[in-house]
Structures are given as C-alpha cells and as structure tokens.
Amino acid sequence: MVAVNLAVLAWMLITSVREHREIFATPFDWPGFAWGNYAEAWQSADFGVAAANSLILVATAAVAVVIVAAPAGYALGRSVERAAASLTLYFALGIGVPVQVIVIPLFVLMERLSLVNNLFGLFLLYVAVSLPFTVFLLTGYFASLPGELEEAAAIDGASRLRTFWTIMLPLARSGLITAFTLNAIGLWNEAFLALVFVQSTDKQTLPLALLGFLAKQQYSGADYGVLFAGVAILVLPMLLLYVWLGRRIIEGMTLGAGK
Amino acid sequence: MAVLIREHTTVHRGQGPTITRQRRRAFLILALPAVILYTIFFVGPTLASFWVSLHAWDGVTEMRWRGLDNFTLLFEDEVFLAAFRNTLAILLAGGLLVFMLSFALLLGMRAMAGRRFARSVVFFPNIIAPIVLSVLWGFLFSTDGLVNAALGGVGLDAPNWLGDHLFLVIFLGLIWTNTGFYVTILMAATDRIPRYFYEAAELDGAGPLQQFRHITMPLSWDVVSTAAVIWTISSLKVFDFIYAFGGTSNDLPPIHTWNTAVFIYGQTFGGRVPAYSFGYASASAVITLVSVIVFVLLLRRVMRRDPIQF
C-alpha cells in the first residue's frame, strides 16, 4: 500500500514537474534570445493583429454574456413563477449540446445574415454559446443570495426591476466577476467556431494565428523559439489571470459538480 | 360605512392581479433577452440539425430529401465508424483512466503539505487553450522529444510516436489535460467528509484502501456521479486538442485519429477542399447528440444510489 501511494505520489510529482516545465520553460527563454522571437511572432506570424482581435472580441463578448445572463439568472433564480423552473432546465440542457452539433445550421444562418467572416458575427456566436453555462451559473448564484434585502425592498415599494438593479446586482458582484472570468478564459482559448467562421488573416483570433503559424512552419522549417513565443502570447494572459484569481476560477469551473 | 368597506375590498381585489401581472412582466423583461438569443442561436440550430440530417445539402442549392439514408450510409462508412470508435474509446476507457488517476492522486495528496498549491498545478491545463496543450504534448512525443530521450536514457527503443501511435498519444494527452479538473472536484467532495470517520476506521484496523472503499466512495458518490456526467459531455466535445495534431490551419489530422467532432468538421468546412456535405455531417451530429443523451441517462440510472446524509 505504501508502494502504491509512493507510485501515485511519484506520478503526481512528475505531472507537476511537467506542468512547471510548461509554466517556466517560456519565461526562462527570455534572457537569452527570445525578445527577437516575440517581435518575430508579433509581426511576421500575425500574432499582433490576432491579439488585438482576440482582446476586443473576448472582452466585449464576455461582458455582453454577463449583461444578458445576469437578469435572466436573477429572474430564474429568485422567482415564484412556474415558468422559472422549466426555463432553468431549458438553459441547462444547452450545456450538454456540443458546439459541433449546431455548427452547420449556425453557419447557414450566419451566411444568410452575411455575418460569416465577420468579427461581429463571431461575437454574437460567442455570446450565444456561452449563455447556457452562464445562465446556469448565475441562476445558482442568485438563488444562493439571502432574501431579506429583497423583501425589505419590496416592503418599501421598490419594483422588481428596481430591486434587481439597485440591490441584487451589486450583491451578486462576486458571481458576475466569476462568470466574466470563466467566459473570458473559455473564449480566449476557443478555436472551433473561429476556425469555421473566420476566413481572412486580418480577422483571425490568437488560436487561429497559432494554427496558421504551425501551417507556415511545415514549409519553412520549424522555429521553436518563435513558436513558443507565440504560445506564450496565448498563455501568459491566462497565467496572470490564474495567479490573480486562481481560487475563484477553480471554484467557478467546478461549481456544477460540488453540490 | 358599508360603502367604505366595499370600496376597501375592491381596491384589494384589484391589487392582487396587478402585482402578479407586474411580477410576470418584470420576469419577462429580465429573462427574455437571454431566452430569445439562446433560442435563435442555440436551440433553433440544434433542432435544425435533425431536419438537415434527413437531407442531402451543400448549404447553397436546394435540399434534397433522403430520409434515413444518411444514417445507413454513416454506419457503412469506415471513416465514421473509426471516428465513432475513437469517441467511445475516449469516453469509456479514457473516462475510466481519468477517474482512476484522479482517485489515486487524491489518495496521494491527502497527507501532503501544500496540497492547495498542488491542486492549482494539477488544475492548470484547464485554463490553457487545448491547441497549446496539443502543441506541447506533441513536442514531448516528437522524435527527438523528451519522452524518447527518457526512453533512450533507460536503453529502450524510441518509437515514432507521432507517426505510428498518434491516437495513443492523443488519448494519453486528453487524460493528462483532464485529470486535474476531476481531482479538484473530487477533492472538494472528499474534504467535506468529517475526519473522525477515518479515525474511527483506523482504530478498527482499516487500511487506506478499505477506508477509501467504505468511507470515501460512498460519501462522495453523488459528486462522482455528477462528475461522470460532466466527463461524458466534455469528452464528446473534444475537438481542438485532436485537430491541432494535424499541425496546420487548413490540413486535418490523420483520419485514424478523428473523433466524431473532427469528422463533422472534416465533412463540411475542413481540409483543403471542403466537402460541404451538410446533410451527411448533420446525421453524425445527430448521432453525437443522441449518444450524449443515451450515455447521460444510462449513467444516471447506473449510478443512482440513495443519498447518504452526514
């Protein structure tokens, strides 16, 4: 039994070393030669444009999701309406639907709206596919808030909309930040929808730039320095966010399972 | 006096429905934007893929009715069958390994100092883009990569991982990237179990494995079953990690490594000459969705136990 535990421990240590290597391999490259790699990745591999696209797209989409999902989460999490329970289920079911199942009808729909190869189109899709999880998360969050303040507001004659806006929304700030962060991470890393809906280089996001760079490498020979500079551009913002908000991220992402 | 009372009551009677109506209106105003967006861009397309799966369609010309032909063809299509087998391998064998590893790690980390830190390290792959993980993983298994260097160090042959055993590499990579998530979930669940259960068990002479079997498992069972559902859903969503092993933005990975998600992409938008077989690919999308439903229901059934209060 001790041996099993030791083997497990050893395995875990190896894993953590692996991950450390990832975490630290790229920063360790900096002092030597890597600044040139970054410049190269930024310019010749189009990471610069892609980073700007990703940043704007992800920031606006993650904010928009929260703006749309927060009122819904409040309505579903704190209502006596009979519709609330069935709507909650309606949104929760969406979590089980893989994106590749809906991508074909979505493509046709977006083509009719002439929103293919269009960053606003991708923005719309990002908001839509993030909705089920975000509504689910915020419904749970609003339901867990104490009800006294809400009752007090009702006694004072505040309407429901006003109660939501002035009392519950500020109270739910922490949940909203979690929702924003999780969506920002998910969308920043998203490659599938971008792959299908973006065709031109000037509109691509960072994951696409990385894939494009891999393609270029096949012809011009591998330059791992630049490749890893590109990887770092994609990873570092997430790493910073993780160091800053790690606990919140972990708890938010595992919320559905742990009671 | 009578008039006054009557007036009073009518006011009351009038107010009830108004409040209900107001509440309902507020409910609609709050929930409607999300419902509309979700219905148009998510639920609509889900239902539409059932409809499309019954047709031959390239997305441009008129749809032609094919009934269930797409489905019968799919089950004769070697490429699809291989993709479906891979999906199932990831779901079932991968799932088993992920959960075994998670529990093993959990046992190993129980008595460890700095387990919070260990947890953050194990969880880390979850916030990294799957294509980045894929690049790193491929890097480890490349011909002169770390794995082969290690094998060479112990005097073993260095296989051509990415050429001859690519699906195995992908399979192991998926386990590596996903285990941390389940370790974290299970850790949260097992941390809620009071220590004195274990102390009592120890006094009775139960070893770690017995404690695990008779305390940890039953008391975290509902979380384990939810985690199994999450694994089922997320394993069917895997795309980026496999796709990036194709190495480029316009080539697909080798056919024998496809899962159903890559298959759908390969039959529609992917590759140098996209096929745009919307109907055919939709049929496989429907099969994916039906698999999700079947497996989740099955899991729910198999794993149902009476909850234990503690």
Chain-wise SSE layout:
The complex is a heterodimer of chains A (259) and B (310).
Chain A: H1 2-43, H2 47-77, H3 82-95, H4 99-112, H5 119-144, H6 148-155, H7 160-171, H8 173-188, H9 192-197, H10 206-220, H11 224-253
Chain B: H1 2-52, E1 55-56, E2 64-65, H2 69-74, H3 78-110, H4 115-123, H5 130-140, H6 146-153, H7 161-164, H8 166-191, H9 195-203, H10 208-219, H11 221-237, H12 240-243, H13 260-267, H14 278-302
Antiparallel strand pairs in B: 1-2
Helix pairs in contact in B: 3-8, 3-11, 3-13, 4-8, 5-8, 11-14, 13-14
List keywords for this structure.
heterodimer, A: about 260 residues, mainly alpha, MetI-like fold, 11 helices, about 85% helix, about 0% strand, elongated, disordered N terminus, B: about 300 residues, 2 domains, two-stranded antiparallel ribbon, 14 helices, transmembrane (chain A), MetI-like (chain A)
What would you say this structure looks like, in words?
The complex is a heterodimer of chains A (259) and B (310). With 259 residues, chain A is mainly α. Chain A contains eleven helices and no strands. Chain A has one domain: Orthogonal Bundle (MetI-like fold). Chain A is 83% helix and 0% strand. In chain A, helix 2 (47-77) runs parallel beside helix 5 (119-144). The model of chain A is unreliable at 1-34 (pLDDT under 50). Chain B folds into two domains: 2-52; 71-302, MetI-like (MetI-like fold, Orthogonal Bundle). Helices cover 72% and strands 1% of the residues of chain B. In chain B, helix 3 packs antiparallel against helix 11 (221-237) and helix 11 (221-237) packs antiparallel against helix 14. The longest helix of chain B has 51 residues, at 2-52. The N and C termini of chain B lie far apart (61 Å). The model of chain B is unreliable at 1-14 (pLDDT under 50). Classes of the chains: A mainly alpha (259), B mainly alpha (310). The interface between A and B is large, with 92 and 92 residues.
